[in-house]
Amino acid sequence: MSLAALDLSNEATPFSGTPVGVTQAWLAADIAEADWLVPLGTAAVDEIHIMADTMQRRPLPTVLRSIGDFELPNLISALDRSKDILDHGCGFTVLDRLPMDEYPEEIMVACFWVIGQRIGTQVAQKWDGTVLYDVTDTGKVYEYGVRGSATNVELVFHVDNAFGPVLPEYVGLLCKYPALEGGLSRFCSLYA
Questions:
Q1: pLDDT for 40-55, tens place per residue?
Q2: How far is CA 40 from CA 44, 69, 84, 101, in A?
Q3: N or C: which end of the chain has fewer CB within 10 A?
Q4: What b-and-e string marks burial along 20-41, b requiring 16 or more CB atoms within 10 Å of the CB?
Q5: DSSP letters along 38-96, please?
Q6: Does residue 112 contact residue 174 with C-beta atoms inside 8 Å?
Q7: 94: closest CA among 7, 172, 5, 178?
Q8: Which of 99, 89, 182 is nearest to 135 (CA)?
Q9: What is the percentage of the chain residues whose pLDDT exceeds 90?
Q10: How far apart are CA 175 and CA 192, in angstroms?
């Protein structure tokens, strides 16, 4: 029997006491691309171009950028759809697609920072206060004091920022160049 066919609406999560809907408890076979993919239309991508061009003309540190500094009605509509999927749908979403190859990496990271503000408040990823960082194989050996995201070790399902007093509600990933080998991102439903 497909998990999506079960009525879980009266069951409480072991974490928050709020009911779990069938959309949050899923197996890969139960969901389709339309359940998580949010295409960015031409108007939203045009707004990203304007935002990126503005950032290039007016340099600032990424963490000083604010979504309120830009007119983004079409992009905000797509982001609101993404947030609805995160909160009431399957719990993960993919925005398709930012113009990654048309701007320097630091500009697209800054756009990603601004986009994330519509979803939630950014929090530190590391003890030293780092909020954004690269996930890439640096050649280091995975050992005490070395994050798995800096090595080629396979990372099992996890939540980011497990050291924090409260787990983050959302985790954002931005990819410019997929790995030639490995580096797959996988998602699962904790509820399922």
A1: 999 999 999 999 999 9
A2: 6, 20, 15, 16
A3: N
A4: bebbbbbeeebbeeeebebebe
A5: EEPPHHHHHHHHHHHHHHHHS---GGG--GGGS--HHHHHHHHHHHHHHHHSSS--EEE
A6: yes
A7: 172
A8: 182
A9: 53
A10: 27
Supply 118's token pair.
Answer: 């519509």
Token pair in block for residue 131: 């909020």
Measured in whole angstroms, how far is the alpha carbon of residue 138 from the centre of its chain?
A: 22
Closest CA to 137 of 120, 111, 155, 156: 155
pTM: 0.82
Cβ contact 110:62 at 8 Å: yes
Half-sphere exposure of 133 (CA within 13 A, CB side): 19
Q: How far apart are alpha carbons 72 and 78 in whole angstroms? A: 10
Confidence of residue 2 (pLDDT cuts 50, 70, 90): very low
Report the SS3 class of residue 28.
helix
